[in-house]
Amino acid sequence: MTATAPPVLVEHVTRRFGAVTALDDVSLRVEPGELVGLLGPNGAGKTTLLSLVTGLRTPDAGTVRVFGGNPRDPASRTSLGTTPQETGLPDTLKVREVVDFVAGHFAQPMPRDEVLARFGLTDMAERQTGALSGGQKRRLAVGLSLVGRPRLVLLDEPTTGLDVEARHILWQALRDYHGDGATVIVTSHYLEEIEALAERVVVVGEGRVLADDTLARVLDLVAVRRMTLTLGAGRPADLLALPGVQDVVEATDAPGPVPGRTRVTLVASDADAAVRALVERAVPFTDLEVRGASLEEAFLSLTSHDAPPAPTAVPEVTR
Ligand SMILES: Nc1ncnc2c1ncn2[C@@H]1O[C@H](COP(=O)(O)OP(=O)(O)OP(=O)(O)O)[C@@H](O)[C@H]1O
């Protein structure tokens, strides 16, 4: 380990599982004190990336360094706290006993009362973990990752399945810990979670980094619109070439298709420009609907192009 090495350095990493390439030539450098959101749909490769950083798995190609050291080396991992997607707690141990058990592994652990207070669990100290709600268990699991006062915290979907209150307590605890100087990486497929936490967002899709930018710019990037319209006869060959259009999909939800007409959905980064172009080119269309795309649709349109388009501010049309 070296004093100046970044908390996380991933260089040209590829990781396969049989025929599946979970990560394909991925590079990522995280600087001290950053709070990074890893955003991407199911199966994008987020968990695999974290498992390489925690040293649970090794890459097939490329290198991974944690504070300059090999994450497989136990010395590198003493600076690292992590909570995987699923955790098991010993049902019959009390909350305070579980915290004390983990604290016993560290020379200067965070005091038990502080851990419990940060995660809103002070009143639960005497309760067996088996009697906690799902949200309380999850808060305890994330709290345990901080007991050793790690400089780097890696959390895989920390609030999936939690109610709003539990989610907000957890987010606040993470923001506070980050405020104390820690580097934090959080994976999620919820844009809301990433918006609440991250300053920098890395979008992962199909094993590749699709975007790596500030939260504001990534929000612009995924703020695409879905334009659905019915085209008359003589459909133009290349709707994809229209300005502002990123993707073209045949709509399958057209109510009662009319013979000779096609219902089409365009995924557009700039719906206004696309509509103007349709009109200027005298494309015969009817029943135009424009609405915000879901995050999944935005990911798909990013994934379907090798180079993501430059972020553009998208004016509000209709939602
Ligand atoms: N142990 C494994 N054996 C086989 N395939 C795997 C294994 N782990 C991951 N994969 C595959 O690698 C790809 C990436 O999976 P990964 O779990 O990293 O994605 P993810 O972005 O974390 O998804 P999710 O949001 O669902 O957790 C997927 O296609 C997955 O099926």
UniProtKB/TrEMBL annotation:
SUPFAM superfamilies: P-loop containing nucleoside triphosphate hydrolases. It is a peripheral membrane protein. Residues 76-86 have a biased composition (Polar residues). Residues 68-88 are annotated as: Disordered. CDD domains: ABC_DR_subfamily_A. Residues 8-231 form the ABC transporter domain. The keyword Lyase does not apply. Pfam families: ABC_tran. Keywords: Antibiotic resistance, ATP-binding, Nucleotide-binding, Transport. GO terms for molecular function: ATP binding. It is found in: Cell membrane. It comes from the Bacteria. This is ABC transporter ATP-binding protein. It comes from Cellulomonas xiejunii.
